[in-house]
Amino acid sequence: MAQPIWTATLSFIAVTAATLVGLSLATPRERATMRRIDAIADTPGAPGMPRAQLLEQPFFQRAVLPGLGAFAKLGERLTPKSQRDRLVQRLQQAGLYGPYAIQALLAFKALFLAVAAITFWLLSGVNSGVAMMTGAIIALVGAMGPDQWITGRIRQRKDALVRSLPDTLDLVTSSVEAGLSFDSSVLRIVGRESAHGQEIREELGRYMTDVRMGRTRAEALNDLSRRCGVTDLEGVTAALIQADHLGVGVGQVLRTQSLHLRNKRRQRAQEAAMKAPIKMLFPLVFFIFPAMFIVTLGPAILRIMDTFKNMH
């Protein structure tokens, strides 16, 4: 038993060394850039962080984050660009923006893939079947776990957007009918401090940022619809874009869309109420009815059993 363990340990050391050497050889441009940055940082009076100040940073920031960056680059190389773009869109629909979101996701997947490979090498000398099964489970968790977590966040965010969209649209409609422009009304909604509708305010804030950056209203609304991925919001943005092209008053369009969304919310509530008895059927049959039978029939069964004992 000692020889397989030593073989697995040496294999782990060899794989780790080969991985580090491969990463160092695969990124010569990055290493040259880091050498130039270090030279600038060590120069007196030059911009950059001094080495002493760098060593004062926490261990996680000094040692762990660069390693995660290497895993993120490895994940980018292993993931096609079309799939990366789709992951970026899914992260945006989940409310995770910024370049670090996709890097963290790819680093997590690459890290689990590396852990699966190392685990397989470590256990292959002891039991090949266990090694293969353990490595496959770790790789499967790393590949599907983040996607399932993102899917859950997307579902929760879409539900929150659907719930808060009618009320938010009512507020925008009231502001437009009071004399404000559409963008001013949206800006007023974004500036409100409320725990309700935080997701829709964040998305409207990004819409206003796009408008301030010089993008047209149609482009900003299309991006808003694409980021959220909500059918109700897609209908509202399409109606606003068409009204903008045709020169129709925005107030009437908003009033019509607001009425339509309130009707859809009422229909969804009625559908949920109609599904409630069906959902309650299984708990009643499997949990409540057995307990009621035990409470009602239990004493009678015990008395019958005592009667039969006395007869014997």
Helix count, DSSP H or I runs of 4 or more residues? 12
Alpha-beta classification:
mainly alpha
Number of strands: 0
Radius of gyration: 30 Å
Beta-strand content: under 5%
Q: What general form does the structure show?
A: flat
Q: Could you list the spans in which at least 5 consecutive residues all have pLDDT below 50?
A: 20-27, 40-48
Structure explained in plain terms:
This protein has 312 residues and is an all-alpha fold. It folds into 2 domains: 2-126, no CATH class; 159-267, Receptor-associated Protein. It contains 12 helices and no strands. Helix 7 packs across helix 12 and helix 11 (231-246) packs antiparallel against helix 12 (250-311). The longest helix is centred in the last third of the chain and has 62 residues, at 250-311.
What is the element layout, followed by pairings?
Elements: H1 2-26, H2 28-42, H3 51-55, H4 59-78, H5 81-93, H6 99-124, H7 128-177, H8 182-190, H9 198-212, H10 217-228, H11 231-246, H12 250-311
Helix pairs in contact: 1-6, 4-6, 6-7, 7-8, 7-12, 8-9, 9-10, 10-11, 11-12
State the main characteristics.
single chain, 312 residues, mainly alpha, Receptor-associated Protein, 2 domains, 12 helices, 0% strand, flat
In short:
With 312 residues, the chain is mostly helical. It has helices at 2-26, 28-42, 51-55, 59-78, 81-93, 99-124, 128-177, 182-190, 198-212, 217-228, 231-246, 250-311.
